[in-house]
Amino acid sequence: MALAVDLVEDSPYRFRIPPRAPMRVPGVVFASRDLLADAEQSLEQVANVATLPGIVGASYAMPDVHWGYGFPIGGVAATDVAQGGVVSPGGVGFDISCGVRLLAADADGRQFQPALPAVMDGLDRAVPRGAGPGGVWRLTGPGQLERILYGGSRYAVEEGHGEERDLIRCEDGGAVGDADAAQVSARARERGLAQVGSLGSANHFLEVQQVAEVYDETVAAAFGLFLGQVCVMIHCGSRGLGHQICTDHVRAMDRAMARYGITVPDRQLACTPVDSPQGRDYLGAMAAAANYGRANRQLLSHAARGVFRRAAGTRLSLVYDVSHNLAKIETHEVGGRRRRLCVHRKGATRAFPPGHPELPADVREFGQPVLIPGTMGTASYVLTGVPGGDAFFSTCHGAGRVLSRHRAARTVTGRELRARLEASGIAVRPKSWRGLAEETPEAYKDVSAVVAASEGAGLCRTVARLVPLGVVKG
DNA sequence: ATGTGC
């Protein structure tokens, strides 16, 4: 049953949904009026999330909010573990640990341009993508998958697929420590086995980009970025493995929920207390998928490095790797007290402020790098976290879809879109024409407006804008 | 997002 939603503008870029039973906290939506056009369904989802047991602060929505499974995409919700706070797989999403990695080349666009076609052809061959099986790693046995589930990109680097800096500049040092592979079903393992080091499809991509604008030179330099520089951005997740884990644990929680006296306004919000067998099982499986997602991005980085070295004589250094679909146990101050919270970020990026102890030492004083993938014809952004801590140090994650895949594919054919992009100087290596058409830039909100609203709401600060030179897609 | 459906 959906709740009717009132929206009160508290300040520019900040709207509030007053709590009405059974909401336990208000909804807080960071956006402009323009960005909220047609957002009614997702605002109902923000209100639904506010009913969850143990939720603290507010049910938050980022400026790229749109409708999702149970929780809106662009949603942030934290629950107090000691107060019966719940964890919900719908608050993470099907693509557990979907995230973005940015690598910076030791070359600028002018030097690099002659090598671009050969690099794109090399990436076309080296990057497994599209639906179904295929990955850069052919696993030697189930033991190796187990090591990925525990070791994440740390394991990939140990096996020679990366360098030490890759771990320093990756969220959680390349692996989360609380994975429990025993909670990853046989079916999830089977799906994951043949997809290690693959991009997937839909909005996932690998792009060669160029830094088109720098808004803060000091912070950009600390992150390893300069104007004109060539970069590689990778956006992908945990493929069929994460999807199956979500499916399995939603079912388990749906069955167990009544035992804890929990009722939710939407069955897709299935949840149990963090401190329950089902809650712990899900968080263990989710952490294993998080590690799989990092290993996935690490292996694709290594494949891209090989191509850049051979075709352009260029090195790639990791700027940062951050997930935007994850729940984390974090300590935050709420109502004057430090509390242990389960922070769900679904289509929302963690954005730790300057000085946060979990940040790598060489960027700590500048805040956490936040990576925002845009759409093919437009731009992507690098942001940084700011002091303040609203929404538990979180910000937006991307442009946000406005046209359905079906409607998008009716506006343009894949071949037309490639011709248009190539004419504007962007090389395109699609696997599927249909998949390319579904990702036409018109299908998305203006990523610049999303970033401006996020900064205007005090969630982050803009560091650099990147534009695509070449796109590799499923 | 996804062996694009339960």
List the defining traits of the structure above:
single chain, 474 residues, alpha+beta, tRNA-splicing ligase RtcB, 7-stranded mixed beta sheet, 31% helix, DNA-binding
Explain what the structure shows.
It is an enzyme of class 6 (ligase). The protein has a single domain, classed as tRNA-splicing ligase RtcB, CATH 3.90.1860. It has 474 residues and is an alpha+beta fold. Helix 3 crosses helix 9 and helix 6 runs antiparallel to helix 8. The chain binds one DNA strand of 6 nucleotides through helix 8.
The percent range for helix content is 25-40%
Radius of gyration: 21 Å
Number of helices: 13
Full CATH superfamily name: tRNA-splicing ligase RtcB
- Separation of termini? 37 Å
The pLDDT mean sits at 96
CATH T-level topology: tRNA-splicing ligase RtcB
Task: Estimate the global geometry from the Cα principal axes.
Answer: globular
What is the name of the CATH class? Alpha Beta
Low-confidence blocks of residues: none
- Tally of individual domains: 1
Strand residue percentage: 25-35%
Structural class, by secondary structure, is: alpha+beta
Shape-level CATH architecture: Alpha-Beta Complex
